[in-house]
Design a protein that fits this description.
120 residues; mainly alpha; 4 helices; 60% helix
Length: 120
């Protein structure tokens, strides 16, 4: 059995800083529920661009590589037009998602709304 290497170690404390003051927020449950629900909706909308990007990339890949032929009694040109329309729609969805991403409410904003006072 070996003895511990640092048996008589000491730490010298030069200065102690205290930062323990706290702000207390008093808020009703219904107001907090509304604020958090609104915040969650914004956060969910701000992540929608990921799905839109996946659909857009898939459609662009299909348009650039596919040879559209008649299937299910639908002409190849009609299939190509449908894919072009779907690509345009997914691009608009992507742009909308990116806008929501940059407009997403940050946690500091939510805290600001929670701590906001009705007193003016």
């Amino acid at each position: 059995m070996s003895t511990p290497k640092y048996t008589n170690s000491k730490v010298e404390v030069g200065k102690v800083h205290r930062n323990v003051s706290q702000d207390v927020v008093v808020i009703t449950v219904d107001r907090l529920r509304i604020l958090i629900t609104t915040h969650i909706e914004f956060v969910e909308k701000s992540t929608g661009w990921q799905a839109a990007l996946g659909v857009f990339i898939s459609l662009v890949a299909a348009l650039s590589t596919a040879d559209f032929k008649e299937t299910f009694n639908v002409a190849g040109d009609v299939w190509k037009a449908l894919f072009i329309i779907a690509t345009i729609i997914s691009f608009a969805w992507l742009v909308r998602g990116v806008v929501y991403y940059f407009k997403a409410e940050k946690i500091e904003s939510l805290l600001g709304k929670i701590t906001a006072s009705d007193e003016t």
